[in-house]
Fold:
Amino acid sequence: MSKDPFVIAVSEDTLADLRERLARTRWPEEIGNDNWQYGTNLAYLKDLVTYWQTAYDWRQHERAMNTFHHYRATIAGQPIHFIHEPGRGPKPMPLILTHGWPWTFWDFNKVIRPLSDPAAFGGDATDAFDVVVPSLPGFGFSLPLTQTGIAVREVSDRWVALMTEVLGYARFAAQGGDIGALVSTDLGHAYPERLIGVHLNFAVALSRELPPASEYSDEEQGWFAKTQHFFAEERGYAAIQSTKPQTAAYGLTDSPAGLCAWIVEKRRTWSDCGGEVERRFSKDELLTTMTLYWATGSIGSAFRSYYERAHHPWQPAHSRTPVVEAPTGVAVFPEEIIHMPRRWAERYYNLQRWTVMPKGGHFAPMEEPERLVEDVRAFFRPLR
Structure:
């Protein structure tokens, strides 16, 4: 299985069309939505869209992306885009970082170099990783989505092929959040012999089970209620993406403002921003995410990942306990959307490290990159 060098180069026609569409946005009326309780706030979105149209410079961010080593490989019939950044140290550990939705591979941009070249960032060269950051099938430049039925296990299988057959690593480490946490967890379950260890910043059961309130310790008070709130009030997007993703895709593939509204609301609600999304993400950071989805036309195919997980439920590869036999570390960020109790995690994983962070939310590599990097280094250090 071979890999081909890849350069990100969005056409000028695509960018000109984007600006023209932004200028022609047809806005809805809005009443009583100052606190975003009905969804994305109109005044904020207008401001962000105006910046996207008139001031945002995609080429600046495209150049930054192309300072990394990008490749594409076809694995089990699916084109997969990935960054492969060799480590600088005496014996770098191979590490695959997997993103989620509404993320892209670029959500890891602040952690790739500190993980691959720790000495350049005040760390120890012996903590170096060979960092691999793929785009999930149907996301970003892992296009076109060539088949249905690619759920969590199907991604895990492709990641093993990527790491072992394309890149030649006998064993490797995995890290992820959101969908990337599901994939990393399944790697530690289905392929424990291949995994050096698994680090997660989003701990959930692959079977979707939720523990009762009695499982939460006194120190974890509030976590159960927060998790219940998410399932009661914040899952509307997932219901659509899990049932009729194609219907939503038409509007969001045609309207960049609509796409922006769909994603920015999640960036605000799921991050540790206190209701001010730009406390955590600059306009440029937000709009680079939007442009990656827009320029690749991948919002609809990214939605498919929800449908496939809902309609192809995860099946265990074995019945042994713990479910995840690979050594596992969990970083718990206080504004994460779902919080599982440590008592549950100690049964579910081969849990070796559990770190409750002082701040941060769902997008840990973007929100708290330094804390995430240090926890990843510390977890894998005894496993080298």
About this structure: The domain at 4-383 is CATH 3.40.50.1820 (Rossmann fold).
